[in-house]
Structure to design on (1077 residues):
């Protein structure tokens, strides 16, 4: 495994995930380059730089010891929660919804940070929970409270997409923690009943509209169905090999909305076709597969839950975004990791990757210490 | 998945003891489950992508192309309408124009205000524009301005991003070089109405700048004149900005229509009418082709092209000369003495010897009534009766043969007939007889009716076109039918049953009218050998106490003239009707003379006319513009809204059906002058006028003193 030709700190890096990610980011930058009309600015170069900055951050995270993770779980959770409240207050003062804090050098969305943090804090909680209490109410109520506060804050922003992402991330950690399955079945049944009620009472008009349009995009092709329709047209017109680099009319002539962020996959598919799409899907499958292997390669409960939750968080981004651009899900503002232009999502995803890399490091050192 | 979970749940709920090992097992199983679900979703996504990108590729490619490519129609250039010499009567000229599609306008008020300041529209024009926007249905383009100079055009083009729905374009505009002269003949064009579009869902109809024929020949020959639109394929962004032109197909101009009309003559006649309200018709005596078909005053079809403004409309409607009425085809007038040459043919056919003389003591006594002639003509034969327009001769002869011998000949010569002319809407008037009167008024025909009808009064009403055809038939001796399309003369009807000698009597009489000692010697042609024969007519509009140039305009007599030239080999036949022009010799005959002069010596005719126009205040177009300016100054923006296209058409139809020239006002015999009414005298017979109530009584029915 270690070649003597390569210095140890370099060889120790998990290249099996860094290289695929680099491929995705390069591909993303290429698409952004084309979407900008054949220019590195304003997106492509920025995209690259951000990736390397956040890759550095991920490598730093991967060196952090397990104990430090455990110690910092609750404090970090508290800090992000405070940030969320802060955003809510600022938005309330400024009038209208605000999701981000301006830090001067970048804008920070605390709700993005909450996605990995909820996984971290729940992993810590279930690690602390005595196994015998796993089937009791004490396994669920505190976890539900840990989830409900941030998820509620995000949903009233209103940012339903991120709120659901946080909830699903948490639900997967709870599921993996081994609580009785019938809880999930019961919760699913309750959700099945509650969802329609919530849909008609709790959702905002524009959110409801998105769902209706998702069910029948052709009903209002110039209105709210526009996004889905144009995105499907972009993907569908790409065919097997695409229209060619720089030839995507849907993105270049502004028919495709958000061509460089949420709908970057459609922009890509129009120019690179089915082959480009398969490359993206397979690369994600490889990265997520690496994540699962890492999670299953450890016997430590905290590390298992942490890695599994992080894998799912990344997966949730990919899954919802792709389903949206292909017309399988309503329009929710979730970008595609490593391809979409945008700092917050890149940061979140690299935190997840960094955390999984940390778990991989613990595995290795654990194995070494055992040996 | 299911078997695992069931075992899980049973063990956990029953066993209650959960160890770290159990949880590790559970994690292993559940992570496999989640991983499998994720893999499944991955496969689903790949399949979905394959479905839309591979199986439905064609469909989405089409959609993508229709996004990218904008196909805009280029309105075809409308076919020209030419006169017999190939001179255009209707053509197109290049035009910078601005249209507006209300459906795409975001803020109509702001857009109109913005356009108003960019194009320097005055308040009247702004009002008209708002009217048009209000009337239009969303998809119909509305014309904002045409005939723009390049600066104004580019000013709008530059501001385009802020003015959604505004379409500046370079196109073609219908142009009628002689304006009002051809208004009634050719009609006019305008934007297609919503009704037009509902009938024919041709996208061309709602292309900005496209015009359809709305009246006359423009409407009749719409399909010929239309042409094939060109198309421009451009690549556009979602906001409609044109990125580049992809391809371009030139339009195919519409077909040309060549008319029998002589454009110069048409224009000359229209201008020669001057300030009068009149119709002039000139027919070719060889083919029956119509050389001029003029009704003035008229509207300027050039100003109708972009839709009619409120003020123009109000002005046209208020004009008592009824500019919207095509008097040449739809004006009906008592023909008066212009009937007399025709009557001589009927009398000869009925066995009257042209040499027989009748003594004119200044009138004719029928029973207890005395019909007064214009003068004491003494002893006149048939030729002399035409020359001097002696009513007594015709009264006595009509009384002898009966009007039923005259009416068929009148019809044979074209009176009361409708002719097969494309794009026209004729009224055929009345040639009365006993059966007609019984049908219409449930009254028997009287001898007095015969007397009135014989001199073209009473129930008789004809159109200027019919008079011209009658003249052409008398002049040529053939049953010529009028035609309008060059090279397609209408085939003549059955031969006229008159001998050369019989026709010569009528022609001799008409020759003497102009060249002998007749009523129109003042209108003799000054062209050496070329001479004109003719007949004047003065048709009474109401029962008059006095004749001639008196009273208000509306109660003056109509002035008529028919004629042909040259007399030896008739080539042209003309009819002139001047509404309320007083004596035939005074108003109508000079117009006929000058029109006829134009045909043989245009330069001389123009000299005469240009001198006259100086006293009239310029050409008809100039006079109309001056009137319009005065009107704008007077009325401002206070005029009522025009109404839509169909309202305009309806108003024109209404003007067309105006009965005023004949029936509403009631008519009295041309030259009948009666004894003063005697008290206690009972009315004998009914009034000859269809609506005698209009002025108490018709002329011929007042009972004379016992």
């Amino acid at each position: 495994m270690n070649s003597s030709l390569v210095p140890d700190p370099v060889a120790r890096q998990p290249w099996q995930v860094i290289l695929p990610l680099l491929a995705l980011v390069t591909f993303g930058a290429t698409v952004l380059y084309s979407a900008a009309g054949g220019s590195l600015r304003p997106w492509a170069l920025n995209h690259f730089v951000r990736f390397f900055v956040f890759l550095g951050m991920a490598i730093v995270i991967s060196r952090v010891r397990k104990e430090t993770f455990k110690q910092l779980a609750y404090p970090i959770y508290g800090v992000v929660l405070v940030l969320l409240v802060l955003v809510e207050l600022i938005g309330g003062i400024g009038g209208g919804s605000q999701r981000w804090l301006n830090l001067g050098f970048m804008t920070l969305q605390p709700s993005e940070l909450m996605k990995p943090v909820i996984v971290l804090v729940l992993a810590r909680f279930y690690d602390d929970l005595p196994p015998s209490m796993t089937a009791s109410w004490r396994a669920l109520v505190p976890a539900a409270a840990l989830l409900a506060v941030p998820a509620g804050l995000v949903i009233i922003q209103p940012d339903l997409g991120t709120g659901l992402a946080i909830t699903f991330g948490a639900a997967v950690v709870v599921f993996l923690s081994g609580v009785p399955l019938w809880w999930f079945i019961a919760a699913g049944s309750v959700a099945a009943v509650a969802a329609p009620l919530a849909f008609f009472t709790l959702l905002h008009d524009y959110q409801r509209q998105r769902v209706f349009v998702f069910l029948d995009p052709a009903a209002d092709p110039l209105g709210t169905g526009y996004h889905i329709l144009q995105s499907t047209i972009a993907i569908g017109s790409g065919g097997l090999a695409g229209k060619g680099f720089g030839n995507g009319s849907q993105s270049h002539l502004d028919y495709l909305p958000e061509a460089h962020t949420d709908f970057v996959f459609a922009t890509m598919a129009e120019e690179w076709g089915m082959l480009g799409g398969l490359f993206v899907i397979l690369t994600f499958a490889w990265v997520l597969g690496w994540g699962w292997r890492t999670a299953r390669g450890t016997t430590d409960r905290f590390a298992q839950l942490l890695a599994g939750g992080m894998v799912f968080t990344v997966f949730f981004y990919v899954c919802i975004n792709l389903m949206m651009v292909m017309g399988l899900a309503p329009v929710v503002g979730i970008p595609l990791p490593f391809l979409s232009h945008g700092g917050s999502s890149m940061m979140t995803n690299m935190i997840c990757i960094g955390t999984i890399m940390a778990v991989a490091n613990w595995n290795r050192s654990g194995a070494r210490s055992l040996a | 998945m299911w078997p695992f979970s069931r075992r899980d749940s049973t063990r956990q709920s029953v066993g209650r003891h959960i160890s770290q090992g159990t949880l590790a097992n559970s994690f292993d199983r559940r992570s496999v489950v989640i991983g499998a679900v994720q893999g499944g979703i991955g496969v689903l996504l790949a399949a979905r992508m394959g479905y839309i990108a591979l199986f439905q590729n064609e469909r989405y490619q089409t959609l993508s192309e229709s996004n990218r490519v904008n196909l805009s129609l280029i309105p075809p250039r409308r076919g020209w309408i030419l006169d017999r010499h190939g001179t255009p009567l209707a053509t197109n000229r290049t035009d910078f124009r601005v249209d507006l599609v209300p459906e795409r306008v975001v803020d109509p008020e702001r857009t109109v205000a913005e356009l108003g300041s960019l194009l320097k529209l005055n308040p009247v024009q702004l009002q008209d524009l708002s009217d048009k926007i209000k009337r239009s249905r969303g998809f119909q383009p509305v014309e904002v301005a045409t005939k723009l100079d390049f600066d104004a055009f580019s000013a709008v083009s530059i501001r385009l991003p802020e003015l959604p729905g505004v379409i500046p374009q370079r196109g073609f505009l219908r142009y009628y070089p002689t304006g009002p002269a051809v208004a009634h003949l050719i009609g006019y064009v305008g934007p297609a109405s919503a009704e037009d579009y509902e009938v024919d869902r041709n996208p061309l109809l709602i292309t900005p700048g496209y015009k359809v024929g709305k009246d006359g020949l423009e409407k009749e020959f719409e399909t010929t004149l239309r042409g094939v639109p060109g198309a421009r394929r451009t690549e556009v962004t979602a906001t409609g900005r044109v990125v580049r032109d992809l391809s371009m197909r030139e339009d195919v101009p519409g077909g040309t229509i060549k008319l029998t009309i002589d454009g110069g003559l048409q224009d000359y006649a229209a201008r020669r009418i001057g300030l009068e309200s009149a119709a002039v018709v000139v027919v070719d005596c060889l083919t029956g082709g119509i050389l001029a078909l003029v009704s003035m005053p008229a509207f300027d079809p050039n100003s109708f092209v972009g839709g009619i403004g409120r003020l123009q409309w109000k002005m046209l409607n208020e004009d008592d000369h009824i500019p919207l009425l095509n008097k040449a085809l739809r004006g009906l007038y008592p023909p008066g003495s212009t009937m007399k040459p025709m009557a001589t043919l009927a009398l000869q056919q009925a066995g009257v010897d042209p040499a027989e003389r009748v003594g004119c003591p200044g009138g004719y006594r029928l029973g207890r009534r005395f019909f007064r002639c214009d003068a004491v003509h003494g002893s006149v034969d048939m030729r002399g009766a035409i020359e001097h327009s002696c009513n007594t001769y015709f009264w006595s002869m009509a009384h002898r043969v009966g009007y039923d011998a005259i009416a068929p000949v009148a019809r044979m010569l074209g009176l009361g007939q409708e002719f097969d002319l494309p794009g026209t809407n004729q009224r055929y008037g009345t040639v009365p007889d006993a059966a007609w009167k019984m049908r219409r008024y449930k009254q028997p025909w009287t001898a007095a009716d015969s007397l009135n009808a014989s001199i073209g009064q009473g129930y008789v009403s004809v159109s200027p076109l019919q008079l011209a055809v009658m003249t052409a038939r008398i002049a040529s001796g053939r049953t010529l039918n009028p035609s309008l399309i060059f090279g397609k003369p209408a085939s003549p009807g059955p031969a006229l049953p008159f001998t050369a000698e019989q026709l010569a009597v009528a022609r001799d009489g008409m020759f003497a009218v102009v060249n002998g000692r007749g009523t129109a010697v003042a209108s003799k042609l000054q062209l050496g050998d070329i001479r004109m024969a003719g007949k004047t007519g003065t048709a009474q509009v109401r029962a008059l106490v006095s004749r001639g140039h008196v009273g208000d305009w509306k109660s003056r007599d109509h002035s008529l003239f028919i004629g042909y030239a040259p007399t030896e080999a008739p080539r042209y036949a003309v009819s002139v009707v001047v509404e309320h022009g007083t004596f035939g010799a005074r108003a109508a005959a000079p117009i006929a003379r000058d029109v006829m002069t134009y045909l043989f010596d245009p330069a001389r005719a123009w000299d005469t006319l240009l001198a006259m126009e100086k006293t009239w205040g310029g050409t008809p177009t100039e006079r109309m513009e001056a009137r319009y300016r005065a009107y704008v100054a007077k009325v401002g923006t206070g005029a009522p809204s025009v109404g839509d296209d169909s309202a305009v058409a309806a108003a024109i139809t209404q003007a067309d059906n105006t009965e005023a020239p004949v029936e509403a006002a009631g008519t009295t015999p041309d030259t009948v002058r009666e004894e003063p009414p005697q008290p206690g005298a009972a009315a004998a017979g009914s009034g000859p006028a269809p609506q005698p109530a209009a002025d108490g009584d018709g002329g011929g029915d007042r009972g004379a003193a016992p």
Notes: The longest strand of chain A covers residues 101-102. Chain A touches chain B through 54 residues (CB under 8 Å). Chain A has two domains: 1-63+204-363, 73-202.
